[in-house]
Write a structure and sequence with these properties.
With 159 residues, the protein is mainly α. Strands 1-3-2 form a three-stranded antiparallel beta sheet. Helix content is 59%, strand content 11%. The protein is globular, with a radius of gyration of 19 Å.
């Protein structure tokens, strides 16, 4: 079986070394996280929604959508699956029946520590060969790159 984790840079990516490294990192990290989430009977992204509810139960679907940074169809599908699994409930808001409010069930609340443990373990695996200074620098650089990519897609205001 071929090694799909090779760090050898394809010729076509030679002028995009950083972007290729980010792609490889994201793929490896996401794959490992997905395996850890499967052990909790969760799909990737569901833990992000649950973490928002751990911080403040009773958020609206729109708030979850904005705070988790996921697209509408992903959030709707994830919330439906989690409701079917008994992790949360969704009900219309008293002030506006079109607005859905999401609440954790006892089963959903019980995932708080296992999810925190999962993220802690993933962090330990991810940084095991880095110094604290390298971790801080990488985190700052990653946030800067993320902001650059996000800002690029925004329309420029002015005249």
């Amino acid at each position: 079986m071929p090694d799909t984790t090779s760090s050898e840079l394809p010729d076509a990516a030679r002028d995009g070394r950083l972007s290729y490294a980010i792609f490889q990192l994201a793929r490896a990290h996401r794959g490992h996280a997905a395996a850890m989430l499967r052990a909790l009977n969760l799909h990737p992204g569901q833990e992000l929604l649950l973490m928002q509810l751990f911080d403040r139960d009773g958020r609206t679907q729109a708030e979850l959508l904005e705070r988790a940074g996921l697209d509408h169809s992903t959030v709707s599908k994830s919330l439906r699956r989690m409701q079917e699994a008994g992790l949360l409930t969704r009900e219309p808001a008293p002030h506006d029946r079109r607005v859905m409010v999401v609440h954790l069930t006892d089963a959903g609340r019980a995932l708080r520590e296992p999810i925190a443990d999962m993220w802690r373990t993933l962090e330990q695996i991810s940084v095991r060969d880095l110094t604290p200074d390298q971790i801080e620098m990488f985190t700052a650089c990653a946030r800067t790159v993320e902001k650059s990519v996000r800002d690029h897609g925004r329309p420029v205001s002015g005249g």
